[in-house]
Every structure is written in structure tokens, then in C-alpha cells.
Amino acid sequence: MDDIWTLVRFLHVLAATMWVGGMLFLGLVAVPVALKNPDPAERRSLITAVAKRFGYFGAVAWVMLLVTGFGLIDHRGLSLADLPDTGYGRRILAKIVLLILVGVIAVLHGMWQGPRVRRAEAAGDERATRRWKAAGGIMDAMMLIGSLAALWLAVSLIA
Length: 159
Ligand code: HEM
Known about the structure:
The chain is an all-alpha fold. It is built from four helices and no strands. Helix 1 packs antiparallel against helix 4.
């Protein structure tokens, strides 16, 4: 039956689609299209603008996942301390850890690695640009794998 918890679960799944779908859209559509631009400065500013804009929505989705997730735990009559006791709880615990890890990587990506790529590019330092871009690629892969793993855990919560 539809009730307030249907809305909370809806917002939880909506946030998951924003988070995972946004990452896939960025990697599969926005960045490849931007890379077709022959002008390096235009390419960079387009990718930065798209990533920044997604950063806001990603942050909203991250908070929404956590808040609605804790609401759903409470709705199941559980607390954080109960989670290690059951398979269901351990999967949720793993999702919380993954979400926090992915969030930390996203912040490092936006505030530490990203600005260094831009700085190295502006200075014309090709070696540093390659190195920081490679670090960004590793971070992207970790965020995608972590988010897909969380999604897998989510859909396997209930048989
Ligand atoms: C990237 C991270 C996450 C993703 C992609 C995600 C995705 C989902 C999805 C798709 C469902 C629906 C599963 C179904 O009904 O079959 C779900 C359920 C659930 N999620 Fe998450 N989630 C994430 C993080 C979290 C976090 C951080 C928490 C806890 C704070 C949480 C708590 C829950 C709970 C308790 C349910 C089950 C609701 C129920 O038993 O009816 N999730 N999640």
C-alpha cells in the first residue's frame, strides 16, 4: 500500500538514479562529446562546467541517499547498532561504507586532483597533466565500481 514510506523509498531510489545515472551519463556521453572538440581550452572548460554542475546534483543525491536510507532503516524497526547482526543489515552497512568512500573520493576529485590537472595544463606541463589525469581516471573507476557495488547490494537486500 502507498504511504509516506513509499515516498521515502521513491526519493531513495530517485537519489540512486541521480547518482549512478549521472556518473554513467558523464562518462559515456558528456565527456566523450566534449573530447571531440579540437580546442583544448574549450574542451577543458566544457568538461569542468559539466562536472561542476553534476557536482551540485551529486551532492544533493548523496545527502538524499543517506537521509532517506536512515529513514528506511528506522522504518524497518532497526538501528545502526542492529545492522551487523543480520545479512540484510550487513548489506546496508556495506552500502553506507561504500557511499562514504565514494563521497570522499568525489570530494578529493573535485577539490584536489581536478584543480591540479587544470594547473598542469595551464602551465603546459605535459608529464604532470598525464599523471594527474591518470589519477583522475583511477578515481573515476573507483567511484563507478563503488556505486555499482552499492546498487548491487541494494537490489539484493530482499530476495
Ligand atoms: C550509492 C548508494 C546507494 C544506492 C545506489 C542505493 C540504492 C537502493 C535501492 C535501488 C533500493 C531499493 C531496493 C529494493 O527495494 O529492492 C535501496 C533500498 C534500501 N536502501 Fe539504499 N542505496 C544506497 C545507499 C544507502 C544507504 C547509505 C543507506 C542507509 C543509510 C541505505 C538504506 C537502504 C534501505 C534500508 C533500503 C531497503 C528499504 C526496505 O527494506 O524497504 N541505502 N537502496
